[in-house]
Structure formats: structure tokens, C-alpha cells
Amino acid sequence: MSMTSNTIAKGLLKAVAVLVAVVLAFYFLWLIQSVIIYLAVSLILTLIGMPIVKFLKTKCKFKNIFAVITTLLIFVGFIFGFIMMFVPLIASQGHNLSLLNTAAIEQNITQLIEQASNWLESHNIDSNRLLKESNLSSKLNFNFIPNFLNIILGTISSFGVGLASVLFITFFFLKDRKLFSNSTQMLLPQNHKEKILNSLDKIDHLLSRYFIGLVIQLTIIFVLYLVVLLIFGVQNALIIAFLCAILNIIPYVGPLIGSILAALLTMLSNLGSDFQSEILPTTIYVLIGFWVVQVIDNNLTGPLIFSNSVNSHPLEIFLVILIAGFLFGILGMVIAVPMYTILKVIAKEFFPENRIVQLLTRKI
Fold first, then answer.
1. Nearest-10 crossing angle of helices 314-350, 302-309
2. CA 243 to CA 262: how far, in whole Å?
3. How far apart are CA 32 and CA 37, in angstroms?
4. For position 312, what pLDDT does the model report?
5. pLDDT at 197
6. Is the pLDDT of residue 52 over 80?
7. Dihedral sign, CA of 48, 54, 60, 63?
8. Which residues pair with 273 in a beta bridge?
9. What pLDDT is attached to residue 344?
């Protein structure tokens, strides 16, 4: 009886110790979440940068260190290129957008609602019940904007530290990739070492192609959005096109949010013009243009780029993103394809005889 009690007590103590260790581990990870983010971003940049380093070494005969430095300079050039693109636009259009004047924003929105109400009434639609009686304009509260701007300023102030950290980590990831690979091999169990190394090589290759494909897709969408906005003379076209293109990182939901954002900014940029003859038609044309871009992306560029980059069928990718969205929300949709690719590679290496695995990984 005492032996049983001692065994139970030891089991409980062991379970409590494991639980405490897990809680402490998660707490530690929460404390160093910034470092984890830096490592994740650096890993993505490394995956994107490896083909560039390889090209510079094989085609341009660069030494490894110079190929890595050149790749990082390319990254820095793109980053500061976007910054230099935004700063003058924000400075010149700041007054028009009234970014720092919450009263002006509220007045502009109220004016836009009133114009929409007048247009509805001119078409025999009872706008009093829909707009005026709801007292929508009085419910709009823009006091959050100063706090939001303070958050943005704080993010910008810490951006320099984050950028320097990411570039520093990425430099060594690219430069000492073989060293890290050799060190990892020493830690792997011998009975599964070959399978693990094969999995890592395939994951490395496929994710590099995936992230490069993502950059290409966002660039194409950005250019197409920009063309649409410039055709219809929308102010701040570069900023709107860039923001809406970035939102496409979120599959299916992002384009919808981007279209709503573009419509709102288009109406605000034309505020003061006649609602029926200018504001409404321009907004409709922009939405139609964005819809055409999404049709092109969903049926041509997106499936073509991603199905080739990760060797998966477009329907397969769609279902994976949909399931991940239901299970884990927006974050799940963003990381669905990379995680699915990793799982497919691991499954093929460790369960090659499984028929389902064979069916899903036949192109890998």
C-alpha cells in the first residue's frame, strides 16, 4: 500500500514539475517574443536571399562574404526605397488627408454620409431611416486616432533596432549556413539523420521558392492596383496600392479588406466633388478594377506561382488555406501554405509507403 502511495506521489510530483517547466518555458518565450520575431523574419529573408547568394557566387564569381553583403545591400535598398517613396507622399498629402486632425476627419466622414443620403433620396430611397435616424455621424468617434498614431510612431522608433537586428542575424544565417548545417547534423539522432537532412533540404528549397513567389505575386498585384488607381486619378495611388497589395498576404480575406479600404480612401480623396457624378462613379470603377485584378490573381498569377513554387495543386492549396482559416483564423491562413509544405515533406520522408502521402506528395 505504501509503495502504491509513493508511486502515486512521485507521479503527481513529476506531473507538476513538467507542468511548471512548460509554463516557465512559455513565459520565457513570451518575454523574448521580439527575439523570436527577429529570428523568424531573418529566416524568411534568408530563404529569399539564398538564391540571390547562389546566383552571385556561380554566375558573377563572387566570394561568399561579398555575395552575402551584396544580397543584404539589395534588401536594404528595397526597404529604404519604400521608405523614401512613402515619406514625401505622406509629407505632401498630410494636410489633405488630415492625418493629425481628428475633427477634420469626422467632418469629412459626416459630409460624405450626407452626400450619400442626398443621393439615396434623389433615387426615392428612404435615407432618413437608414442614415439620419440611426444618427450614424454622431456615433463616429475618432479619438482613437491620436493613440493609433502614437503606436505608429513608437513602432517607427523601434524599427531601426529591429532592422539592424534582423540584418545582423540574416548576415550570419547566409554567411555561415554550412556551419549551422554541420552543427545541426551533430545533434541529430543517427537512426533518422538521413531522413531529417533530406527533409530539411527539401523544405529549404520549397520555402525559398514559396517566399520568392509571394514577393513576385505582391509586386504584380501592386503594379496592377497602381495602374487602376492612376487611370481614375485617385490621390495617393502609390500608398493605397501598396497597402492593398500587402493585405493580399492574407488569402481571400485580405483582398476584400483592401477593396473596402480602397473604396473608402477613393471617396475621401474626392470629397468636395459631386457625389453622383464623380465620387460614386469613380469608386465603382476602382472597385471594378480591383475585382478584375483579383480575378487575374485568383485564376492566373496566384495558382501559377504557388502551385509551381510548392508543387501543390491549386485546389489543394485552397482547401488547406480554408481549413487553416476555420481552425486558427487569419494567422492560420497566412502560415497555412508554408506549414503544409513542411508537413508534406516530412510525411514523404518518414511515411513514404502511405497511399495518402504518396498521392499528396507525388510532385515533390
1. 10
2. 9
3. 9
4. 76
5. 77
6. yes
7. positive
8. 271
9. 86
The full 3-state SS of the chain, as one line of letters, equals: CHHHHHHHHHHHHHHHHHHHHHHHHHHHHHHCHHHHHHHHHHHHHHHHHHHHHHHHHHCCCCCHHHHHHHHHHHHHHHHHHHHHHHHHHHHHHHHHHCCCCHHHHHHHHHHHHHHHHHHHHHCCCCHHHHHHCCCHHHHCCCCHHHHHHHHHHHHHHHHHHHHHHHHHHHHHHHHCHHHHHHHHHHHCCHHHHHHHHHHHHHHHHHHHHHHHHHHHHHHHHHHHHHHHHHHCCCCCHHHHHHHHHHHCCCCCHHHHHHHHHHHHHHHHHCECECHHHHHHHHHHHHHHHHHHHHHHHHHHHHHHHHHHHCCCCHHHHHHHHHHHHHHHHHHHHHHHHHHHHHHHHHHHHHCCCCHHHHHHCCCC
- Give the pLDDT of residue 145: 46
Indicate yes or no: pTM above 0.90: no
**Where does the pLDDT of residue 98 fall: very low under 50, low under 70, confident under 90, or very high at 90 and above?**
very low
